[in-house]
Amino acid sequence: MIHGRLTDADSGRFNLGGPVWAGVMDWLCDEAPTAAPGRYELSAGDLFANVMEYETIPRSEARFESHREFVDLQYTLEGDEEIDWSPLAGLVPDGPMDQDLQFWLPPASGWSTLCQPSGRFAVFFPGDAHRPKVRHSTQRVRKVVIKVRARLLALDSL
């Protein structure tokens, strides 16, 4: 898991490196601020952005999730939320995997909580369980989730 701000001097490119991440960060800076809700294909199914707006919910209603084939970069455009993070080791599945999405029962303890105000991003890799949508101080969030097929990163020297 990686957590940072786009306003830090080249923080995304420095921490993530490579042409795939440079393109992702460029899209976040140039296109995301004015993008309407919806899906944006950045590379034919291997790299796409979902711009969404939703109401945050109490922690007890949010679910841990992970993805087998995709890395999630979650960037908050407006509002704020908390995202809980936990390594997958020791977690118990909460139902069967649905395509790329696996839900997990929450661990009794041991997760970390990220405060995700506007301007911050978090990157979750296939070994990272994350619980987004947790209410912090605002109820309405506008954010973008960029999905990067993990195999692209092997070519990106990560």
Question: How do the strands and helices of this protein lay out in sequence?
Answer:
Elements: E1 2-5, H1 11-16, H2 18-30, E2 38-43, E3 47-55, E4 64-67, E5 70-78, E6 80-87, E7 101-104, E8 112-117, E9 120-124, E10 128-134, E11 140-149, H3 150-154
Antiparallel strand pairs: 1-9, 2-3, 3-11, 4-7, 5-9, 5-11, 6-8, 6-10
Structure explained in plain terms:
The chain has a single domain (2-153), classed as Sandwich (Jelly Rolls). The chain is 15% helix and 46% strand. The chain is globular and about 40 Å long. By secondary structure, it is an alpha+beta fold. The chain has a 6-stranded antiparallel β-sheet. It contains 3 helices and 11 strands.
Number of helices: 3
Integer count of domains: 1
Query: Care to count the β-strands?
Result: 11
Largest beta-sheet details: 6 strands, antiparallel
Would you identify the regions where 5 or more consecutive residues have pLDDT less than 50?
A: none
Helix content: 10-25%
CATH A-level architecture: Sandwich
Radius of gyration: 15 Å
Which homologous superfamily in CATH is the superfamily?
YhcH/YjgK/YiaL
CATH topology: Jelly Rolls
